[in-house]
Amino acid sequence: MIRNKTIHLGAMILILWLISAPCIFSEARFLNQEETWSIISNTLKSFLSDPVAYSSEMEKIGDLNYWTIIYEMIENVDYVKELLSRHFQANKMDEFKLNIIFNLLLKYSIPPDPYSSLTAPIIDRIVEVFQNDWSWFIENLRKRSDWKKIVRLIYAKEKDKFKEKLFTTNEQDTTKEILNFLRELEHEKEDEYKLLEKFLKEPDFNIEKIKSVHDWGSIIGQYEMLHQDENKTLWPEYNPMLLLINWIKNGTNEAKIEVLCILIKSLLYGYHGELISDIGAKIFLEHPKMFIESLSKDEYWKTILLRISYDLYFYDRCFEKSINSLGDFGFEKKVKDQLKFLSSILNERLKE
Asked: 58, 43, 44: which is closest to 107 by C-alpha?
């Protein structure tokens, strides 16, 4: 009887472990950051060596964007470019490998940002694939229920190349469906630009609507071009970035910080990225509780924290003030642990 109970207990423990195993990457609830990083970095290294064998393990990693950038910071390597230099050659692609590439693209894309330094080389490789064999590419793309998400990402970076292939193909039925979706994207961009104009005039009345924008960088760039004077000067009263930042700073609240977090995820490059990262760090220091409340609602909160980390480190050396202001329970504890982890990485990088 005792032996049977022991076997039953052992079986239950094994079942519980198997059920919880897929969650270890996404939450790592029972591990500290160093232990979590050790597991994830080993998975990233294994995938780099044999992506076909370890593709399912990569799928389990939550916020893959964040952990890959951490990997790049520590290992001093461009992870995705290194991966594509070893594997997934366009002329050696099969259906299984193409789906790995598609899945990787979706895992690295962080809504609403259409593409980043991690997704850009993947899209470039996808372009090589469809230029090599368009019919085969489209056939496999259309098998997926999420094909529109993939097309949206490709189109954001390589619109002309994608449309050129569409217009030169003889597969009318497939082409028509995709072209209709591309027209939807064009109309969507026009609507989003009009929404930005309304938002900049009356931001408090359009907060919820503006959260649905897909491509902030594109429509802000368009707004700037259309509001330059004859000397191509963009005056402060027409500068969308300054208007947005001033609005966020004036009477900061949780709704404004939610918009700020969206901008941090969306604006990565040039002076747009620099401005939004800087204001993000300042708002984090001035309103830590509200900022953390907004982070708690976002599955990509680690990436948001990472994107403001350099500016935050500049204003708060080693994140000492931020860490000391946070509690040891709940989501605050998660943010606190993440800041300690990032601090150790930045300390090493700044020594170099």
From this structure: 58
| Residue 67, CA atoms < 13 Å, CB-side half-sphere | 24
204 with 325, same domain?
yes
State the pLDDT at residue 6.
41
Residues 251 and 162 in one domain: no
> How does 263-302 read in b/e, with b if 16+ C-beta sit within 10 Å?
bbbbbbeeebbebbbbbbbbbbbebbebbbebbeebebbb
Task: Return d(Cα 319, Cα 339) in angstroms, integer.
Answer: 7
Q: What is the C-alpha separation between 102 and 123, in angstroms, rounded?
A: 9
Q: What DSSP state is assigned to residue 29?
A: T
> Tokens representing 19?
């059920």
With CA atoms as reference, report the closest residue to 325 among 294, 288, 296: 288
Decide if 257 contacts 246 (C-beta within 8 A): no
3-class secondary structure per residue, 135-198: HHHHHHHCCCCCHHHHHHHHHHHHHHHHHHHHHHCCCHHHHHHHHHHHHHHHHHHHHHHHHHHH
**Same domain, yes or no: 163 and 219:** no
Calpha distance 122→274 (Å, rounded): 25
- On whether residue 186 sits in a domain, the answer given is no
- Type of residue numbered 258: E
pLDDT digits (tens, 9 = 90+) for 9-56: 444 433 333 334 443 344 444 468 889 999 999 999 999 999 999 999
Please provide residue 299's backbone torsions phi and psi, each rounded to the nearest 5 degrees: -65, -20
In the predicted model, residues of the chain with pLDDT beneath 70 are 1-31, 170-172, 352
**Residue located via tokens 């085969």:** 136
Contacts of 48 (CB under 8 A, 6+ apart): 79, 82, 83, 86
The range of the structural domain enclosing residue 316 comes to 193-351
